[in-house]
Amino acid sequence: MNTTIDPHLPVPSLGTLLWRGFRQTCPRCGGSKLFGKYLKTTDHCNACSQELGHIRADDFPPYLTMVVVGHIIVPLILLTEREFQPSITVHLMVWLPMTLLLTFWFLPRLKGMIIGLMLHLGLRGDESQ
Fold first, then answer.
1. Model pTM score
2. Which of 30, 80, 81, 121 is the most interior residue, by most CB within 10 Å?
3. Nearest Cα to 36, choosing from 53, 19, 48?
């Protein structure tokens, strides 16, 4: 298996790397899947041979997911409470599942974006200060 990167493949812009990561494809070429499982990064891209398995995004994608989902859910909860005053049971039946769905939807996409950013910056995730 050849794990060298095709030198003729141009390095994409940061925006392209982030968009491809959000789409959960290889940030470098967009030609194959970024994840083999839900959040498990593939070892390398099958299309361009870019090594991906060594990039460790660690805690930043879950943190970013909490921020994004929180900024979506909390205003909706406050608006619903102000306009309709539903019971706590209705709140729980609506907002808990919606929070879970948004979290599970955003997490791999944001992790893909972080991997694209780290690829752009040349980081692996094992750096120390």
1. 0.90
2. 30
3. 53
